[in-house]
Amino acid sequence: MSSPTIIQKPKVEIAPEIIQKISEQVHEKGQVVVHCILDVVDDLLIRIWPTTMLYDQHSDHVSDLVHVDNITLYPQWQQARIGKNYFTLIFDGLPKSCIVFNLIEHCSNQAGAFQVTNIARNKSDVYFVRI
User: Fold this and answer.
1) Model pTM?
2) Residues with Cβ < 8 Å from 41, sequence gap 6 or more?
3) C-alpha closest to that of 90 among 73, 106, 69
4) From start to end of 27-125, where are the E strands?
């Protein structure tokens, strides 16, 4: 598996029903939304650990994962489809002073955990990453 990358200007093809579902969700002030894209080439089970967090690089602030969409939480597994798989992670807000942060999944099998580092903060606090 290749290392995760930050997508600056993604060309994303998302099914209209998913866009409608996301647009109906109310994003409260102070939340950070991370849309993840996982390319799967072979049968794979996926899940996210609730110990996935955002870390401000310039303070000791940690934002907790508060909601997931289209992926199961540990200990449950779900089958990933071959091709592109999309899921969304929602975190507590970052401090206003945060300009760069890391997304890190902590799990008992650290070989299966992912991390995306050096994410530049933007005004919308909505991000797209390829895992």
Assistant:
1) 0.76
2) 82
3) 69
4) 32-40, 44-46, 52-56, 62-69, 78-80, 83-91, 100-105, 115-120
